[in-house]
Amino acid sequence: MHNKYIYMAALLILVSCSNQTDNFEYPESNKVPFSEEVHGYVIEDAYRWMEDFTSEDSTDWVERQNNFTQKFIGKNKYKKSIAKNLDEVWDTDSISMPYQVNKKTFYYFNDGSWQQSKLMIKDCDECSERVLLDPNKFSEDGTISLASTSVSNDASLLAFSISDGGSDWRSWKVLDIESGKTLDDRIEWAKFSGASWENDDSGFYYQKYDEPSEELLKDINTAPKLMFHKIGTAQDEDVIVYENPEKPRWSWGISVVKDSKIKFLSIGEGTDERNRLYVQLSPDQPFIPLIDELIGAYSFLESKNDTFWFYSTENAANGKVVSLTIKNGSFVWNEVVGESTNSISSVNFINNSIVVSYLVDTFTEVHFFDLKGVYKNKLATERKGTMGGFGGEIEDEVSYFSFTNFVTPREIYKINLTDMSQELFWKEDLKGHDSTLFTSDFKFFPSKDGTQIPIHLSYKKSLKIDSNTPILLYGYGGFNISRLPGFSKSYLTWMNQGGIVAVVNLRGGGEYGDNWHDAGRLFNKQNVFDDFAYSAKFLHAQEIGSPSSTAIQGGSNGGLLVAATMLQNPNLFKVAIPQVGVLDMLRFHKFTIGWAWESDYGSPDKKDEFENLLAYSPLHNIVEGECYPTTLITTAKRDDRVVPSHSFKFAAKLQESQGCDNPILIRIEGRAGHGAGTPKNKIINQVAEVYGYALSVIDKG
Fold first, then answer.
1. Higher pLDDT, 11 or 291
2. pLDDT band at 74 (very low <50, low <70, confident <90, very high)
3. Cα 172 to Cα 152: distance, rounded to the nearest angstrom
4. Cβ-count burial 123-149 (b if 16+ within 10 Å, e if not)
5. Fewer CB atoms near the end CB (10 Å): N or C, the chain?
6. 271: which residues sit within 8 A by CB, 6+ positions away?
């Protein structure tokens, strides 16, 4: 219950929390009593000082917490075994999906020993591959990573962006592909942006934010500008292509139509998948609106002659393919591939065909249509899993696609689309791993309201499953993101220790289209937590694990999921692992890009949405004296997506309130961010510590 009252000024008395249990004493967390009235509710926030997460006080708290946590997770009987297993399976060649630009082939390669994968190039089909860009040379510890790349149309130049220590901020540079030399061009303060080359390769388009005025990792990011950078010039000469200061929450993405003067401008608002769509018919004309309301997603796919194809969800929750014909200044829309009972996960154009990948109960099914939308055939496959790829130009006859599932490492196939013949191009052959010794079951279970929810269970075939079996239960449930079957080296280590990995496809994701997403967002968000809790109840009822053998894990929005579900069901789990989580639902919109998540969470500035957020916000629903599961919170100092103060405040308050001897721990990584670009050694150490500790806690019963 939250009592309403008249606003009182914040107290200035400094106190400290040092919660002592029978077996250990938590590091001291200073409390600065603070209260404020929001929509008539009393909100207390004694740890708000932690929002200044780069301050000396925060740095000191982080060091003391890390030292305390290491006493628990630094050594356990599983850590060395897990680290050894990961070292072994990581010591294997891996490549990314190859792609071609102007008959040159590009892909990422790692021999298993490098912290970061290298970008490779084959200058012709018969040419030997060579290293084009080696991110391992960016820094000694591998924490400066290659974030993204974009090859010019003639494959003479490569624009590439760099992330420093995991930050979302990007610095762009340009490489001469033939000579391997980096040009003088430098782009700073880009974020959430690719590089879209102009047809003549004179330069590229990108999205830029203003330089932060106060704190690099926490200032709010709004009012971006769409810029054009001309090769060989300084950034201060870049031209503003589009901006709208009156709409600071709009963001931009541009599609340059090949061999044409036409450009399409996508205008997004936060993480809402719906967008506005504008078109520019020639450089001397302004962008004009084609779709000027948020009525669906519109993503440019391909063009031929006067026809332009788009993926759309307007009046099609599962997606469809539509075409736009532009003639004599008129715009005519037509449906090409109509909505199916299954949701579309991707669309590609190749060999003058439309390749549509559908999700059928989370598994990929690939269908081929001609350019008029007439069904041709389906990709033959005997195994169920996740497929992706089919990239290339519309006239290309050969492409690549990948296959994986929870027990099958990634395989890449080369496909001739004229006769549909396939050949294995590359297979991830992990040392010491035999996929035939593992299995993955797919089941449905009823959630609290009776909705049937899918769940995947993966484990060794020889495993004797009972109520003592260690369960790693993973979920996400948000932002229309689908968690599909895919091999994970981290999950493999859990299975190799005699456990089951259970991945549940919660509402809020995109596995069954926009309706599935809508059923788990805004005022329906509680459905996601119920789905997660009922997945555990379903397993336990079948004696697949039990509350004393189940660990729950999730990151980012999944960190919110784990924390909220654990607080609502403290007796259902043994271990909770909320990672880089959104945990203060009343202030998430105050930092960096957090405001963009209001499309899924709602706005704390609106009373009804604030009340909905308050009902499940982890930071505000901790009950004093309740016995919560052993909890290992993880975050990183340089996470400027979900700032670490979420985890800091949650850990401090949970330690203060814990009513039993189950430890509340927090592990804070140094030179890392939200996850992308983290070097190999850091990943292995984190997995070994987190999973090793969880298994040791489950061992104790």
1. 291
2. very high
3. 14
4. beeeeeeeebbebbebbeebbbbbbbb
5. N
6. 479, 596, 597, 599, 600
